[in-house]
Amino acid sequence: MKYVSTRDGDKKEFSSAFVIKKGLADDGGLFVPTEIPELSLDDIAAIAEMDYPHRAAAVLNLFLDDYSFDELLEASSKAYSEEKFGASPAPISKVGDNYFLELWHGPTSAFKDMALQIMPRMLSLSLGKTGEDKNALILVATSGDTGKAALEGYKDIDRVGITVFYPSDGVSNIQKKQMASQDGKNVDVIAIKGNFDDAQTGVKKIFSDSSVRETLAEKGLFLSSANSINFGRLAPQIVYYISAYCDLVNEKELHLGDTLDVTVPTGNFGNILACYIAKKMGLPIGKMICASNSNDVLTEFFETGVYDTKKRKFVTTVSPSMDILVSSNLERLIWFLSGEKVAADYAKGVSEGRYEYKDKALLSDFKGYSCSEENTAKTIKSLFTEFAYLCDTHTAVAAYAAGEYKKQSENKMLIVSTASPYKFAPAVLKALGESVPDDDFDSLDKLFGVTGVKIPENLSALRDKKNIFNTVISPEEMKEKVLAKNK
Ligand SMILES: *Cc1c(COP(=O)(O)O)cnc(C)c1O
Questions:
Q1: Which of 190, 288, 303, 343 is the most exposed place for a label (fewest CB within 10 A)?
Q2: How far is the CA of 10 from the centre of ligand 1 (A)?
């Protein structure tokens, strides 16, 4: 399987190991596979017989052919172990006549663990496979959740180090504690005086500074990013759609071949794009519902073909991981539908603030809905009072969108659940009509008291953890910190 950049008219091809090491193409485009492997219903029936690590290895093997099946199986067995994910990495809860695919049973209680637990292992292997003699240094600027998920994913991985910068005043107490107490011999966590933008601008500056690259290269290091546009983060997300379909067939909720609609709470468009790829492989997916919060550029796009960020103001919501105006992975969808010329035009248009996609009819597999803050809260409350099912704010956005779409469809619906309700305990408490304690940890206990739903171990254990990292620096000192790194 070869990969090309979404913007490259010459279609220069790269191997899967190179693509995982490299992340983003030199022309700014995203790497995409030149063909989509096919799954027959018989193949799906065979996958349904396997446990999750075998399902992951079987599906990844179709895309990442620089890796042997055994290497992939070893990586997925370690990534999705019972110790890390409990009994099942991606269980389904039936709630009324909907199915919630819970992708948050991993070490940080959010769906990014599904990719970030396995992708660092493949990055590490890619260094040997591409003949790379330098080690990778991952730099992350985080507003909270991605940083912790990346730290957990990259810790103690061979030939890879990770440094996370977070804004000292821009993350919750729980998030701060999660990162400051991180274990692992290759991790570094540094607080920045300033906001998330200051941290992100600092990291971007370091990435584009050729003198930093040269100095690090002399020490045997190269910079890499844990960004969600890496195909290595997308591929593991294809797995759970196929796995969920298999589980529903095994549970006799679906007959093999029945069409399943899927609703995905969407930010950067990575998760739902993985669903699209699974559908293209042959998984019987019907409509893909793209659920957005008040930052609903995508809802407008699927309705009108116009992607317009110019006229919009970024708003902060109770579902912060979806507070995004430019969804990077949409460029991959445009490439799949219309090729590199249109994808390059799209990228240019979006960078200038507006793009109109002329082949709007090709978007008919998708439908977008937007969910207000009020409806997010109402959905959390009604799912809990009617079904005793507690969901987080992001999942609530999806559940609302699914409800809207189901007014016009008979198919069964899979709703993708992306975070534990405890990850966003204050907002969930508020939605339930409860007062919110000042201290985050008290919010966890209170939400438990009100609902009786178990607190994930990784969060309840935090309160007593010791901080290992206490460094606070100004943004100007970030470069110095990075330059001090050694192989
Ligand atoms: C990242 C994230 C999303 C958005 O996923 P994308 O792949 O960026 O569309 C939704 N919910 C939660 C909890 C997330 O962390």
A1: 303
A2: 33
User: What pLDDT, on a 0 to 100 scale, did the predictor assign at position 225?
Assistant: 85
> For residue 82, what are its two tokens?
């019972």
Task: Give me the chain's average pLDDT, please.
Answer: 95
Antiparallel, parallel or unpaired: β 306-308 and 260-265: unpaired
pLDDT per position as a tens digit, 226-271 = 888 899 999 999 999 999 999 999 999 999 999 999 999 999 999 9
Distances in Å between the Cα of 199 and the Cα atoms of 196, 205, 283 are 5, 10, 41
Biggest CA–CA distance in the chain, Å, is 62
Burial of 380 (0-12, 13-18, 19+ CB in 10 A): buried
User: Of the residues 143, 292, 394, 422, which should be mutated to test ligand 1's pocket, given the most ligand atoms within 8 Å of the CB?
Assistant: 394
Q: Which of 276, 418, 423, 424 to mutate to test the pocket of ligand 1 (most atoms within 8 A of CB)?
A: 418
Residue nearest to ligand 1 atom 4, measured at CA: 267
Q: Report CA(485)–ligand 1 centroid distance (Å).
A: 31
Q: For the chain, list residues with pLDDT below 50.
A: none
Confidence (pLDDT) at 174: 87
| pLDDT at residue 34 in the model | 97
Non-local (6+) Cβ contacts of 82 within 8 A are none
- Best mutation site among 268, 323, 324, 422 for ligand 1, i.e. most ligand atoms within 8 A of its Cβ? 268
> Count of residues for the chain?
487
Nearest atom in ligand 1 to 274's CA: 7
User: Cα 181 to chain center, whole Å?
Assistant: 23
Q: Which of 9, 71, 29, 2 is nearest to 230 (CA)?
A: 29
- Whether the Cβ atoms of residue 328 and residue 269 lie closer than 8 Å to each other: yes
Pocket of ligand 1 (CB under 6 A): 110-112, 145, 228, 265-271, 321-322, 394, 418-419
CA-nearest residue for atom 1, ligand 1, is 321
The DSSP output letter for 110 is B
Q: Are 223 and 213 in contact (CB under 8 A)?
A: yes
pLDDT, residue 185, reads 96
**What whole-number distance in Å separates Cα of residue 384 and Cα of residue 451?**
9
Tell me, in angstroms, the distance from the centre of ligand 1 to residue 266's CA.
6
Using the structure block, give the residue that is written with the tokens 């045997």. Answer: 220
Are 102 and 90 contacting, i.e. CB atoms less than 8 angstroms apart? yes
Q: Which atom of ligand 1 is nearest to the CA of 145?
A: 15
Closest CA to 418 of 398, 435, 437: 398
